[in-house]
Specification:
There is one protein chain. With about 400 residues, the protein is α/β, with parallel strands linked by helices. Helices cover about 35% and strands about 25% of the residues. The protein folds into 2 domains: about 200 residues, DHBP synthase; about 150 residues, GTP cyclohydrolase II (Rossmann fold, 3-Layer(aba) Sandwich). Strands 8-9-10-12-11-13-14 form a 7-stranded mixed sheet, with helices on both faces. Strands 6-2-1-7 form a 4-stranded mixed sheet, with helices on both faces. A 3-stranded mixed sheet has the order 3-5-4. It starts with a helix and ends with a helix.
Length: about 400
């Protein structure tokens, strides 16, 4: 009945549509799913003709921000919290409802320079904002479409449409099996996609080398994640069932140039000393600027110099206060054989992130001294981000 995720990805890259089903205890539905970078207007017409549900465009949160797409309602009372934004038409549209014009609207979302000025609102295309953690965070068709887009190497824009029977009722699994054979489509489940991501694509171990340092001799494990980002694990001592762990997000300014504007460099230095003495693991994650990247972090610094705090500066740039996730870190720990850790951290979000991935977490405070340049930064981490300082 179900096809492999790899075969579904191959079909998607050819511009084909596939069927994606969710759990029978959830919506118990099947959606036609396509990837915006690969489909054409005929795919939209096929959805309208042969699926007959609502044609929606799942997108990542970053694309939603760039396009200025805001939630359709301030209070989402939908049982599954489907994250509709205000509907859109591309500014070039006439009526906006034709298959061609809906395709042009969806295609515009893949433009890396897209802005709110590219669309009229409301319109005939319904964007849906996927959770950043994908199907591992929310098992919905929205997240499945965006995950499939990422896995296929495309921009994070999908197209989905619920499949209805000819009598207007929702197609369930038996109906979908007939539908699949009739139209020659691949079919996968969200559960299989979730397992695929967890087992094959979330993190890839690339190499292991000896790494002598000023703090002692470590083993360095190199990893790549599904987005192509490179992360490392520094391990001191033999891997045990329970070890001390520090998850450190990259901070070029603090780690390399010893910036006094943050406490990152001091935290990394302290962690290296502790781990070298007591054994454990340091994960060095490529999540600069709480996930916004180096250039945007420097832009945030400009706003901080104008009087913004670190959270307000990120938000003024259009980002959430903290975009970091910890699923990749958890996958690295699992690869090393760790399922229970003592986390050197003051950040509850790290603890919750690991626990959500099945890691048993105990916490040990990781405090370094402040200075005249970072006292406001540390206060903001405590007051706005909930850090245990």
């Amino acid at each position: 009945m179900f096809d492999s995720v790899d075969s579904a990805l191959t079909a998607l890259k050819k511009g084909e549509l596939i069927i994606v089903t969710d759990d029978e205890n959830r919506e118990n539905e099947g959606d036609l799913v396509g990837i915006a970078d690969y489909i054409d207007a005929e795919a939209i017409n096929f959805m309208a003709t042969h699926a007959r549900g609502l044609i929606c465009a799942p997108i990542s949160s970053d694309i939603a921000k760039n396009a200025g797409l805001i939630p359709m309602v301030t209070h989402n009372s939908d049982e599954f919290k489907t994250a509709f934004t205000i509907s859109i038409d591309h500014v070039s549209s006439t009526t906006g409802i034709s298959a061609y014009e809906r395709f042009e609207t969806i295609k515009a979302l893949t433009d890396k320079n897209v802005t709110t000025h590219d669309f009229n609102q409301p319109g005939h295309v319904f964007p849906l904002i996927a959770k950043d953690g994908g199907v591992r965070q929310r098992q919905g068709h929205t997240e499945a479409a965006v995950d499939l887009a990422k896995l296929s190497g495309a921009n994070s824009v999908g197209v989905i449409c619920e499949i209805m029977n000819e009598d207007g009722t929702m197609a369930r699994l038996d109906d979908l099996e007939v539908y699949k054979e009739k139209h020659g489509l691949k079919m996968i489940s969200i559960e299989d996609l979730k397992s695929y991501i967890e087992n094959k694509t979330l993190v890839q171990h690339e190499a292991t080398v000896n790494m002598p340092t000023a703090y002692g001799n470590f083993k360095m494990y190199g990893y790549t994640d599904g987005q192509g980002k490179e992360h490392i694990a520094l391990v001191h001592g033999e891997i045990k069932d329970k070890m001390k762990v520090r998850i450190h997000s990259e901070c070029l300014t603090g780690d390399v140039f010893k910036s006094a504007r943050c406490d990152c460099g001091e935290q990394l230095d302290l962690a290296l000393k502790i781990i070298a003495k007591e054994d454990g693991v340091i994960l060095y994650m490529r999540q600069e600027g709480r996930g916004i990247g180096l250039a945007n972090k420097l832009k945030a610094y400009e706003y901080i110099e104008e009087g913004y705090d670190t959270v307000a500066a990120n938000e003024h740039l259009g980002f959430d206060a903290d975009l970091r996730t910890y699923d990749v870190a958890a996958a690295m720990l699992k690869h090393l054989g760790l399922r229970e850790v003592t986390l050197l951290s003051n950040n509850p979000k790290k603890i919750d992130g690991l626990r959500q991935e099945g890691i048993v977490v105990n916490r040990e405070a990781h405090i370094v001294s402040g200075n005249e340049y970072n006292s406001s930064y540390l206060n903001t981490k405590r007051e706005k981000l909930g850090h245990l300082l």
